[in-house]
Amino acid sequence: MKFAHMADLHLGSWSNHPVLREMPLKAFKKAVDICLDEAVDFVIIAGDFFDTSIPGIDVMRSAVSQLKRLHDHDVRVYVVTGSHDFSPSGKTIISVLEEAGLLVNIAKMKESNSKIYLDFTKDKTGAKLCGIVGRRSSLEKSFFERLDKAIEKENGYKIFVFHSALEEYKPKHLKDMPGISCNMLPKGFDYYAAGHVHVRNVIDFDGSKIVYPGPLFPANFQELEKNEAGFFIVENGKEKYVQLKTVEVVLIDIDADGKTPGQVEDEVMSHIDKNAHNKVVLVRIRGTLADGKPSDIDFRSIANEAEKNGALTIKRNINKLKAKELEEVKVDEHLSVEEIESRVIKEHLENGETFENEEDIIHALMSLLSQEKKQGETASVFEKRIREDAKKIFCVE
After folding, report:
1. Fewer Cβ close by (within 10 Å): the C or N end of the chain?
2. Catalytic residues
3. d(CA 182, CA 169)
4. Strand partners, 239
5. CA torsion sign, 370 to 373 to 379 to 382?
6. Alpha-carbon distance 225 to 284, whole Å?
């Protein structure tokens, strides 16, 4: 038996960056190339296959192309939805792809008498898979708390797939990320395919291993800086990490303390040279300017200089750059957009009355209202679709 385990592909992410938004798709193609070369029997995607429950048409076209390559070589694909591609309304691209026979959602969950029951999906190799979906702010925790443990008695080679952080093993920079305890995991499985935490980790657990492959492509500035991404191939119980380098990165780190915006700009320019050719240029500027504001730095000229030197694109991080006369606004640069959103929502909910599943509903509405018109869709049809989906979120007829 030989299978691949990947997670956190986030296809459709980096949507505001014309170059970077192609990189997760390229990384997935590379991963599929390797899976076919290695002749794996099946592929597990442990959540966040897509960056949203309903991705754009170009993203779907690219994903379908790669899934079909796997399908044509009889490589099965098993997934659970993650905190990004899960939808409370049940309308996700994952269900469409499953209907087309290109993958199988193995999070077959049933609820009865307040208990959660899981069904196994059996692969041709004899492996038995089941799993639990991931939800924003680890709201899937209630599923684990109510999980019927009869699945522990199932015979055969078993794989449990989930998309959650484990409180006992969270990296220090993700200490505020909500998670579950590893004691909530069902025992007796041969392999635990995990996702959600964008850091590679292999954890000994109950005579088996919990494996986090990390992202298939970096999802933010800090991850790009490290540029560590990949997935695992597991053969006869032994895991092998496959590193993916989809793009080369060069970092320009500037200390702006006591400098003017013009001086900072000149210093950045001096570091952009031919080494930037065909790479992503990251510019980190930190410190307190002697005068002026961060917006006085001419980033357009910096970007033009990078382009002249053949850079693929340039991305800046000025979270720790401030003006002398302004009060510092503290932002944890390690937090993702999702985590910042969750923190703001939690602070709001703590200050007023709440109703059941309010946090989940807020996230679902935010995802819904961020959607754009589909190709060929009129304004009136778009508005009607959004209204209907909103009603489903609120369970209104």
Report:
1. C
2. 84
3. 9
4. 234
5. negative
6. 10
- Burial call 262-271: b when 16+ CB within 10 Å, e when fewer: eebbeebbeb
What confidence score (pLDDT) does residue 329 get?
Answer: 42
Orientation angle between helical segments 379-393 and 358-369, nearest 10 degrees: 170
Q: Locate 95 and state its tokens.
A: 């269900």
Q: Report the alpha-carbon distance of residue 191 to residue 170 in Å, rounded.
A: 19
Pick from 104, 93, 16: nearest CA to 59: 93
C-alpha pair distances (Å), 52 with each of 31, 72, 86, 293: 21, 26, 8, 35
Residue-wise pLDDT tens digits, 15-65: 888 899 999 999 999 999 999 999 999 999 999 999 998 899 999 999 999
pLDDT confidence of residue 332: 59
Q: What is the pLDDT of residue 328?
A: 45
pTM: 0.80
Distance CA 396, CA 373 (A): 23
Residue 182: the pLDDT is: 94
Encode burial over 63-84: b for 16+ CB neighbours within 10 A, e otherwise.
bbebbeebbeeebbbbbbbbbb
**Phi, psi (5° rounding) for residue 250?**
-125, 135
Write out the two tokens for 292: 């002026």
Which residues of the chain, if any, have pLDDT below 50?
Answer: 327-329
pLDDT in tens, 330-376: 555 566 666 677 777 776 665 555 556 677 788 888 888 878 777 67
Q: Measure the CA–CA gap between 67 and 91, rounded to whole angstroms.
A: 20
Contacts of 302 (CB under 8 A, 6+ apart): 265, 268, 269, 272, 283, 314, 316
Give every CB contact of residue 224 below 8 A, 6+ residues apart in sequence: 218, 249, 280, 282, 315
